[in-house]
């Protein structure tokens, strides 16, 4: 049995639409390279060359999977989509890699997806009862089948997607490619980011984050709005906003805390500034006498700088990160996470030895990684270690595409703050106050976010989602 908890994924999507044949695969390669932080298990590219869809995907990093030989084989075209993925235990492998290509009565649909569909089990069951045969355990295949079923009944792909959006529940930022169109789609809540821009020669580019637009020299145009479908075709670009404003906006706040690159701007707000502000809040709420502020690379660094500026305690480079080791948070198994940490971070002894250190990190999930990082500082001679966390305690699982385990594996569900401090070996521990979450990106606090993993306030009906499983 593979539970739905095991197939959740946080991913990066990228798409290219041009009016002439060009090396769209190479543009997609660079875009995926910029989004590698969002997924390090598998990747893939699909290219529309005007006659057929050429696809390559496999397990591994972008530079490992998309070799020069593979890139040459993809050739030229005017459209392409790409994907980087990470998976959780039990669902590694090429089968769940994307893009996903489905051939149907009216043509071909290629799909890349970031997010998680909370009603995927019911939809899959209904589709199977109607004769559908599934080849993956990914909810992306469910999305493809739902859209395909609607496409059979509708005159255009955008009409099919519009209908499918009333069927799909949960988080989905999609890029869809047909024979002659590219569509960018964001769910009604806007759980996951999606934006688009244009290159100097008029080629449109769609991406999970604006940093990927920068990587290919594209000028940012705007974010796709929650509930919006943006269609790219030969006659131009147009928006379908029938579903906009139908649900409360709820971008995942963890995008600002951890997932996104600091040089990205999401829904108009700088990720870098959000992390600085989170650090400043920590300095105000959890002050401590110390000699130096140190950030855990990479997503804890901006928070540490923010804490330093607000507290006037000097910031120092306390760790050197091995750039060739991936994120431990998104490694498929806990044991692998622990082993990777041994070679991922190395403390700078001259910076921390004999010092009272304020250590800033983005989160504590299970606590094992935090304990090992603290031990590294102790072994390097730190006199005191005070941990400050730029997120509140995780007390709920996420059903919208973040790899946060059930409550059984969340340390904050079992122990108090003081107990957690003792377990991970710090002199004091301070979390970001939940009340500050709306203000870390938006100073006015008016924008709405999904904070369910911290507050339990889910934006969709999840009463039965934990019971879902696939044989």
Automatic annotation (TrEMBL):
PROSITE patterns: GATASE_TYPE_2
Segments forming domain Glutamine amidotransferase type-2: 11-235
Binding of [4Fe-4S] cluster, residues: 252, 398, 450, 453
Pfam families: GATase_7, Pribosyltran
EC number(s) recorded for this UniProt protein: 2.4.2.14
InterPro entries: GATase_2_dom, Ntn_hydrolases_N, PRTase-like, PRTase_dom, PurF, PurF_N
Catalytic reaction list: 5-phospho-beta-D-ribosylamine + L-glutamate + diphosphate = 5-phospho-alpha-D-ribose 1-diphosphate + L-glutamine + H2O
SUPFAM superfamilies (UniProt xref): N-terminal nucleophile aminohydrolases (Ntn hydrolases), PRTase-like
Pathway named in the protein's UniProt entry: Purine metabolism; IMP biosynthesis via de novo pathway; N(1)-(5-phospho-D-ribosyl)glycinamide from 5-phospho-alpha-D-ribose 1-diphosphate: step 1/2
One MF term in the entry's GO annotations: amidophosphoribosyltransferase activity
Note describing how the cofactor binds: Binds 1 [4Fe-4S] cluster per subunit.
Active site positions, chain numbering: 11 (nucleophile)
Keywords recorded for this protein, A-Z: 4Fe-4S, Glutamine amidotransferase, Glycosyltransferase, Iron, Iron-sulfur, Magnesium, Metal-binding, Purine biosynthesis, Transferase
Gene3D superfamilies with a match to the protein in the record: 3.40.50.2020, Glutamine Phosphoribosylpyrophosphate, subunit 1, domain 1
Protein function: Catalyzes the formation of phosphoribosylamine from phosphoribosylpyrophosphate (PRPP) and glutamine.
UniProt family annotation: In the C-terminal section; belongs to the purine/pyrimidine phosphoribosyltransferase family.
Protein name in the entry: Amidophosphoribosyltransferase
Organism: Thermoclostridium stercorarium (strain ATCC 35414 / DSM 8532 / NCIMB 11754) (Clostridium stercorarium)
Lineage, uppermost ranks: Bacteria, Bacillati, Bacillota, Clostridia, Eubacteriales
Gene encoding the protein: purF1
């Amino acid at each position: 049995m593979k539970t739905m908890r095991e197939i959740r994924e946080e991913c990066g999507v990228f798409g290219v639409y041009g009016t002439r044949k060009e090396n769209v695969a190479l543009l997609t390669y660079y875009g995926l390279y910029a989004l590698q932080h969002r997924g390090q298990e598998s990747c893939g590219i699909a290219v529309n060359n005007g006659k057929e869809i050429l696809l390559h995907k496999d397990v591994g990093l972008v530079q490992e999977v998309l070799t020069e030989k593979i890139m040459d084989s993809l050739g030229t075209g005017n459209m392409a989509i790409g994907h980087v993925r990470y998976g959780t235990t039990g669902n590694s492998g090429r089968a769940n890699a994307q893009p996903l290509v489905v051939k149907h009565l009216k043509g071909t649909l290629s799909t890349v997806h970031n997010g998680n569909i909370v009603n995927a089990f019911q939809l899959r069951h209904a589709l199977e009862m109607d004769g559908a045969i599934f080849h993956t355990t990914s909810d992306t295949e469910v999305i493809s089948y739902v859209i395909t079923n609607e496409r059979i009944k509708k005159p255009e792909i955008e009409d099919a997607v519009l209908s499918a959006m009333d069927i799909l529940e949960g988080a989905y930022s999609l890029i869809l490619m047909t024979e002659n169109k590219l569509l960018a789609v964001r769910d009604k809540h806007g759980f996951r980011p999606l934006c688009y821009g244009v290159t100097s020669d008029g080629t449109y580019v769609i991406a999970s984050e604006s940093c990927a637009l920068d990587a290919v020299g594209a000028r940012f145009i705007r974010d796709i709005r929650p509930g919006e479908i943006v269609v790219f075709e030969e006659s131009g670009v147009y928006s379908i906003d029938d579903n906009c404003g139908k649900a409360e906006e709820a971008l995942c706040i963890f995008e600002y805390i951890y997932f996104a690159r600091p040089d990205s701007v999401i829904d108009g707000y700088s990720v870098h500034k959000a992390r600085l502000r989170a650090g400043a809040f920590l300095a105000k709420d959890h002050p401590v006498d110390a000699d130096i502020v140190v950030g855990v690379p990479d997503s804890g660094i901006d928070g540490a700088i923010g804490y330093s500026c607000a507290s006037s305690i000097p910031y120092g480079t306390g760790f050197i990160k091995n750039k060739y080791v991936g994120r431990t948070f998104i490694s498929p198994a806990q044991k692998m996470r622990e082993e990777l940490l041994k070679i991922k971070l190395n403390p700078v002894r001259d910076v921390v030895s004999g010092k009272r250190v304020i250590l800033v990190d983005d989160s504590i999930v299970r606590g094992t990684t935090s304990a090992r990082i603290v031990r590294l500082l102790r072994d390097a001679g730190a006199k005191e270690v005070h941990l400050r966390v730029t997120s509140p305690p995780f007390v709920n699982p996420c059903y919208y595409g973040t790899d946060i385990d059930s409550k059984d594996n969340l340390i904050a569900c079992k122990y108090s703050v003081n107990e957690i401090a003792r377990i991970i070996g710090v002199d004091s521990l301070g979390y970001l106050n939940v009340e500050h979450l709306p203000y870390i990106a938006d100073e006015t606090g008016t924008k709405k976010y999904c904070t369910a993993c911290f507050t339990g306030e889910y934006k969709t009906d999840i009463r039965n989602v934990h019971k879902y499983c696939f044989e």
